[in-house]
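WARN no homologs supplied; continuing
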Amino acid sequence: MAAHSYVLEEEYIGLPVKAYLKEMGVTAIRADVVDRREALKQSVKVSATLKWEFSRELVGSIQMHKDKIDGIILLSAFPCGPDSMVNEMIIRKFTGIPILNIVLDNQDGTAGLETRLESFTDILKLKRGEL
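OK structure emitted
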């Protein structure tokens, strides 16, 4: 999962996503838990002009893990302007890796979110020949 720590640890945004993925048996690699220096170095391979340091860390982490993952879940809180631009860049640069881009603002329930996550994991299982 690629998101800022404050999104992943947020009670109504990140924690339900992490719990649901765990319930489905998905092992999530957090892009925000990585060697910062190495992630910043790796981010240059994706974009030499990316300005926001937190975004460079996330992009660098994806670059570091790209050969070890089945897919990428981009989790953003609306209205984060930098995330909207960086997520689009990630989608364009990391071709060949399934990507689910989730932008959350206020929500009354998790049914739609759970459906999107379940569909995405089904795509990953299908790609691995498990369905």
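The helical segments are 5-8, 14-23, 36-46, 53-65, 81-93, 111-127.
OK
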